[in-house]
């Protein structure tokens, strides 16, 4: 396994991130801004200049301030700069984050089942490792990142000082330089900034190849990788032991990293014919950015109506009170009794106190927001029901829920087809690394990942189905018990079958049992 790498880590200075990833990372950074919901990140992503910080920038494009067609083409709502000296009043509706969370919930609200051949020793070891890596939390985290950033990586690492088994970590798509061959991940280089000091940036590069992991530490700038330095130069990499080729044998011929695309194919022309971008998949936000931008603009407009629509009064100068020379005139809003005010001649019929209340266009804004939300949710590939736009009634059956959420369920099924084989590969490699590094029992002869059904029938529906099958003599007692209790193991099912058979044997006619030659032969144990 000590073969030379196909593409070793860089030995010379180069642009970083690599120029091959520039257009990809630009798009991902925009989706990342929507996912984070940070107004400053959204403004930066769409070209607005921050003029509200401690060192405001003033280099703005004239077209950003233009009206009409020129201004509309030159900017989005989040691309409009905030003038110097003004407070940012733009508001963000975190619908993008809600979409990513919903995608993860659909996939991993119920954990997938790891189906293996019977081997108690290997199963106990796998369960211990999965508990150690927080598997049940790792999957929802990965699912949320994948929905937002086109996909997600999971990699295998180990550190004897941290755990007595290999670990699994999550890496977002914007921190990796992958290599694909015929749609399959062949190798990948992850990077992480471990130190920043002024303009100096120190990065740790970790390249995964079949059977090998290479490590490199580089000191450069924000845009340049810089020179390679010893791993011992930073505490984050000082404990990594490598051979003369700066690598570590993994103990498995499998790649110790997997990439799970969110969903395919990609829709962007700049990605579709790109050797990297065509394999990354697409974000749930791809194509719905204009609607999300319009949603934020509408919500900001609504809140502006609320802000400027506050009740105000205009008070005639004669109604103001003063506490003497040198003091400002004032008007007591809490005073309950006033004396008559003599209006000066020439003032017309104006009252001394005139109330003003601007209209708050609540219904118009609410209708627009609802229409935009429907467009956003549908464009992301989900049903409105998933987000509670049309709340289900208390008596809704699993069949009705499935019909209403058909689009969400279809999207979920698409995504599970990417997750299942990737997780199978990852866990197989994990157990092989565990055998090589921690003397574990090794992988299973057979292992598959099965996702639970998207909708579960209610107990009443299961009971009704079992009753119908019994009346039609279309299923045995064992089959019906397993149907009503799918989570029971063989022992529990056998015990329940015995109890049912025992109860049925007590049900005899009042006049006594039938003669042996007339009693029906009943055998429903199988």
From TrEMBL:
Query: Which InterPro entries does this entry report, sorted A to Z?
Result: Portal_protein_SPP1_Gp6-like
Where along the chain is composition biased (Basic and acidic residues)?
Answer: 402-413
Q: Which domain of life is it from?
A: Bacteria
Location of region: Disordered: 394-413
- Name of the protein this chain belongs to: Phage portal protein
**What does the record give as the organism's lineage?**
Bacteria, Bacillati, Actinomycetota, Actinomycetes, Propionibacteriales
């Amino acid at each position: 396994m000590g073969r030379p790498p196909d593409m070793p880590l860089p030995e010379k200075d180069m642009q970083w991130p690599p120029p091959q990833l520039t257009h990809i990372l630009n798009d991902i950074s925009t989706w990342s801004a929507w996912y984070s919901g940070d107004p400053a990140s959204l403004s930066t992503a769409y070209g607005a200049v921050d003029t509200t910080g401690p060192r405001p920038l003033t280099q703005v494009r004239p077209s950003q301030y233009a009206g009409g067609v020129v201004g509309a083409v030159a900017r989005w709502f989040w691309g409009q700069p905030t003038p110097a000296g003004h407070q940012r009043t733009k508001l963000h509706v975190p619908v993008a984050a809600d979409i990513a969370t919903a995608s993860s919930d659909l996939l991993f609200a119920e954990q997938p089942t790891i189906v293996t051949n019977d081997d108690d020793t290997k199963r106990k070891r796998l369960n211990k490792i999965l508990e150690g890596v927080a598997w049940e939390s790792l999957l929802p985290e990965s699912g949320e990142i994948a929905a937002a950033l086109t996909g997600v990586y999971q990699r295998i690492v180990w550190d004897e000082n941290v755990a007595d088994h290999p670990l699994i970590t999550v890496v977002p798509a914007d921190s990796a330089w992958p290599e694909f061959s015929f749609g399959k991940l062949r190798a990948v280089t992850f990077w992480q900034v471990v130190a920043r000091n002024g303009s100096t940036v120190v990065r740790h590069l970790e390249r995964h190849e079949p059977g090998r992991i290479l490590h490199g530490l580089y000191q450069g700038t924000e845009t340049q990788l810089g020179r390679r330095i010893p791993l011992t130069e930073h505490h984050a990499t000082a404990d990594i032991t490598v051979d003369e080729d700066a690598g570590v044998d993994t103990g498995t011929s499998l790649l110790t990293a997997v990439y799970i695309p969110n969903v395919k194919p990609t829709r962007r022309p700049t990605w579709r014919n790109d050797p990297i971008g065509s394999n990354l998949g697409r974000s749930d936000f791809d194509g719905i950015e204009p609607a999300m931008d319009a949603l934020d603009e509408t919500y900001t407009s609504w809140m502006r109506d609320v802000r400027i629509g506050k009740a105000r009064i205009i008070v005639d100068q004669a109604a103001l009170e003063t506490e003497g020379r040198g003091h400002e005139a004032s008007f007591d809003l809490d005073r309950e009794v006033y004396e008559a005010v003599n209006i000066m001649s020439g003032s017309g019929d104006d009252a001394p106190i005139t109330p003003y209340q601007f209209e708050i266009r609540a219904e118009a804004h609410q209708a627009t927001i609802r229409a935009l939300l429907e467009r956003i949710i549908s464009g992301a590939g989900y049903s409105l029901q998933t987000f509670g736009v049309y709340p289900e009634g208390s008596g809704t059956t699993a069949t009705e829920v499935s019909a209403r959420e058909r689009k969400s369920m279809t999207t979920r099924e698409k995504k599970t087809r990417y997750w299942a084989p990737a997780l199978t590969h990852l866990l197989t490699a994990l157990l092989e690394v565990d055998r090589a590094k921690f003397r574990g029992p090794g992988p299973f002869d057979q292992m598959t990942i099965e996702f639970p059904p998207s909708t579960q029938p209610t107990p009443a529906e299961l009971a009704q189905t079992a009753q119908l099958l019994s009346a039609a003599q279309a299923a045995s007692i064992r089959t019906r018990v397993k149907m009503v209790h799918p989570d029971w193991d063989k022992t529990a099912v056998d015990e329940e079958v015995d109890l049912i058979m025992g109860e049925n044997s007590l049900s005899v006619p009042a006049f006594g049992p039938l003669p042996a030659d007339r009693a029906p032969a009943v055998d429903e144990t199988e």
